[in-house]
Amino acid sequence: EKLAKIEQQQSEIGEQWSEIKLQLAQGKTKVDTLNADIAAQQRKVDGLRKQAQQVAISHFQTRGVDITIQLVTSPDPDSFLADMSTMGKVDQNMNSLLQDYQAEQANLADLQRAARDQVTTMAAEERRLAALQDQIEQKIREGQALIDQLTEQERQRLNADEAASSEDAGDADALIDSGSADSRALRAVKYAVSKVPNGQYVWGAEGPNSFDCSGLMLAAYRSVGISLPHSSRAQFRMGRPIARDQLKPGDLLFFYNPVHHVGMYMGNGLFVHARNPRNDLEITKLSSYPAYQGARRVVG
Q1: Is 261 known to be catalytic?
Q2: 18 contacts 204 by C-beta, under 8 angstroms
Q3: Phi, psi (rounded to 5 degrees) for 292
Q4: Which of 59, 230, 260, 273 is catalytic?
Q5: 273 catalytic, yes or no?
Q6: Cα dihedral sign for 23, 26, 30, 36?
């Protein structure tokens, strides 16, 4: 019981790790988009600045006033142009152009500020990710220390209990109910099942031979062209909910509250999952696994 609690804590911390990892990936995409927007906005601002300078020079030269030297030599051309607008030294068309320039410059500043804020947020998430990684490794050490303390009789009882809840993966394909499921869901199940004999449980992994629980689901559906996030909680928001008595092969099964474990239904009351670092990948009886929370169907 104590070992199960430690392994559940590992799983819960690991799910937090996965969520932050997903947020970091999304944050990087956001920063890349912001940087592209900043570059485009900078070009727009530079173009308007050049246009405003040319119009101002032309405007004043036609009135016998040459401000070219003032504009070119000004230590702050932006403030110079802004002053011209506020002081009423240009006509209405010129003033409109300067207002456009100032508005676009403000938009540029907003984008730059958003990018800086996102980078700051990501730095904090990186620190939290590292702290969670340390916690995961500590829980793994605690679990291993507990196993090392077991007597031979306790080890045999633990192995017997786990064997009673799992199925031999020697002929795993024969355990899949292929009657009514979507063809892509079936192929995803077969992918996941094929990884059971030699697959290893590794935090944050998504293949080809190492997986965590959501990483195995991601890899299985990726093999049939369907994209899933690398997080059991995020996967719990995918697709549509399915009642337990309506399960089909390929449905994602979720456990614990809050959710921090996921497996894939095979049919015949069985599911395949990356269980934990001690058990790696296995086929388990759904009726024997604790804290079932629900299922989602992502295809079919």
Answers
A1: yes
A2: yes
A3: -65, 135
A4: 273
A5: yes
A6: positive
Backbone angles phi, psi at 293, to 5 degrees: -110, -25
pLDDT in tens, 260-300: 999 999 999 999 999 988 888 999 999 989 899 999 999 98
**From 59, 230, 260, 261, the catalytic residue:** 261
Model confidence pLDDT, tens digit, residues 159-185: 776 666 666 655 777 888 877 789 999
* Domain 166-297 annotated CATH 3.90.1720.10: yes
* Distance, CA of 283 to CA of 273 (rounded, Å): 7
The model scores a pTM over 0.85: no
Ranges of each domain in the chain = 2-148, 166-297
pLDDT tens for 228-268 read: 999 999 999 999 999 999 999 999 999 999 999 999 999 99
Q: Which single residue is written with the structure tokens 């024969």?
A: 174
Structure tokens at 84: 């011209």
| DSSP assignment string, the chain | -HHHHHHHHHHHHHHHHHHHHHHHHHHHHHHHHHHHHHHHHHHHHHHHHHHHHHHHHHHHHTTT---HHHHHH-S-HHHHHHHHHHTT-S-HHHHHHHHHHHHHHHHHHHHHHHHHHHHHHHHHHHHHHHHHHHHHHHHHHHHHHHHHT--HHHHHHHHHHHHHHEE--TTGGGGS--SSS-HHHHHHHHHHHHTTTT-EE-TT-BSSSEE-HHHHHHHHHHTTT----S-HHHHTTSSEEE-GGG--TT-EEEETTTT-EEEEEEETTEEEEEEETTTEEEEEEGGGSS-EEEEEE---
Residue 183 in tokens: 């063809």
